Amino acid sequence: MRFSKMLIPTLREIPADAEAASHILMLRAGYVRQLAAGLYIYLPLGLRVIEKINKIIREEMNAIGAQEITMPVLHPAEIWQETGRWFEIGDEMFRLKDRGGRDMCLGMTHEEIITWLAVREIRSYRDLPQIWYQIQTKLRDEARPKSGVLRTREFLMKDSYSFDADEDGLERSYQLHADAYHKIFSRCGLKFYMVESDPGMMGGATAHEFMAPSQAGEDEVVLCASCGYAANIELALSSPEKIEVREWEFEEVYTPEKRTVEDVSNFLKLGPEYFIKSILLISNEGPVLALVRGDQELHEKKLNKIIGEHRPAQKEEVKDILGVEAGFIGPMNHKIRIIADICLKEGVYVSGANKPHYHAKGIRPGRNFTAEWHDIHIAKEGDVCHKCNGTLKVERVIEVGNIFKLGTKYSVPLKALYLDEKGLEKPVIMGSYGIGPARIAAAAIEQNNDRDGIIWPKSIAPFDVEILPLNMKDARTKEVAGEIYKDLTDKGIEVLMDDRDERAGVKFKDADLIGIPTQIIIGERNLKEGLVEIKDRRTKETRKVKIEECKISL
RNA sequence: CGGGGCGUAGCGCAGCCUGGUGUAGCGCACCUGCCUUGGGAGCAGGGGGUCGGAGGUUCAAAUCCUCUCGCCCCGACCA
């Protein structure tokens, strides 16, 4: 392609409302334009990248026997009502009515629709297993679209669904996807981790996410370098660092106006890890006291799984329920349910004395209070791996893919049944698997850029090579550029030629910004010796080669 | 939905606090001509704005007040 004939509107300055590197660079390098919050137009270069990614996805999906189909974006409400999600999902679903007044919605995912299809087309165990996929637009009315293409209201997703006769079959389909995903993300040049994740409302027991490390990400993962444990921080287990046990006898200490762990810790000159933080919460079944070590944070989501929906108690409620004002609460002598973090099970601690302006020292779990023991703290950098005693690392990541074991969550309500060998009717066992191509592109940029612009992995770059004829007014330059362009193109190499009548500096800047991995620089100086330069975008290294060797050297 | 910020030419911004400087300004981009061609050149000339929108205060509003719409960031949410 010729640059002069292509819409590549590069920007010199950083757009005011972009912050993430990928967002800034996609705008500056002319890959995308924003229509409205969370809605993007892909320009020619952007589209080429997405299609490169989609091609890789298709190849790997087809390789595991998945079959591509395509489903509508507009869905009738009835089917979503049958699974209950029409009612469970709130404002995030775009809803509308058709001219007949029927409720409709825009597809945020396609479990319902694919299951509708399975209901009709799968009848016998002989029809199983099946993997069907599509690369389709999804619409979600996100509360807060952000970071350019990383979180949008309309986006492309590769979603696949597996149908199996039993759990073993599902395990095989799940594994096939995990393997295919590894290949896809590797081929796209991403650094990534596969981590345990919370199945959430997708249902089912097992789920994993594919996470590309980047500061621009919205998630955090916990990683153990020694045993390979990897989990989303939403469910990651860990053991806080062990502390030396102090053999204090129980005593009450006067701590005037010292209410926070920090205050008391400074006042008593004792590290926060020797404190028990007591937090009163109100669940649907009444008040619950949650206990974590003073240097730890309570993990709301973990607690949610134990006590259900809850909210923090108000100051007056603390006094009413525990008989003491907030700041001096301790775990002793309460009749309400107490959930304590496992790391408190051993040791001797300091906590509120349930008495204004007093804390109690020498509190022993088991003796001074009892509790239900659970992991309810947020794992953090430096914690001990609960599997191997290694040291944990926490990293910020972009979710680029996920895989879920759904089981019968959709096949039962929608009656996707098959007849087994004995003629018994059974629900199909399902899995659901997603990949966001735009997130792959954005993550690739986040992981591969420098001061000058994007550095695409070769596999997903919009072009393989960019030719820079530095002076288009020079006949020899033009001639050689034309020859090399034709040569490479004939060999099947995708070439962008900057044939604009621009000064050399402009072409260099734009080429670095756009980030095509290899540049061929054609300047009059080198041409006199029959040479052109080949430059690697990543390393900036150049080497001079003879014109005729140009294609061989790539 | 809660908190914060911002809407002035295609892009980036100044002007607003303290209303009035005459035709609303600067840089880049754009158009014409000359010149130039190895890291976003130079000179000369030129086009482009209902100052997000509506209402109000005032002799006078980009500037003050009210409402409203949009965008970004933090948080909540995220199938």
Count of beta strands: 31
Level of helix content?
Answer: 25-40%
Q: Could you report the average pLDDT, rounded to the nearest whole number?
A: 94
Strand content: 25-35%
Low-pLDDT segments, ≥5 res: none
Q: What is the 3D shape?
A: globular
State the separation between the terminal residues, measured CA to CA.
18 Å
- In quaternary terms, these chains amount to single chain
- Helix/strand-derived class? alpha+beta
Largest sheet: 9 strands, mixed
Radius of gyration using CA atoms only: 30 Å
Give the helix tally: 14
How does this structure look, described?
The protein has 554 residues and is an alpha+beta fold. It is 25% helix and 29% strand. The strands form 8 sheets. Strands 3, 7, 8, 9, 10, 11, 12, 21 and 24 form a 9-stranded mixed beta sheet that branches. Strands 16-14-15-17-20 form a 5-stranded mixed beta sheet. Strand 11 and strand 12 (230-232) form a beta hairpin. Helix 1 crosses helix 10 (437-447) and helix 2 (44-63) packs across helix 10. The protein is globular, with a radius of gyration of 30 Å. The model has no long low-confidence stretch (mean pLDDT 94). It binds one RNA strand of 79 nucleotides through residues 9-19, 34, 36-37, 85, 88-93, 108-109, 111, 140, 142-144, 146, 151, 200-203, 218, 404, 432, 468, 470-474, 501-510, 512, 521, 523-526, 533.
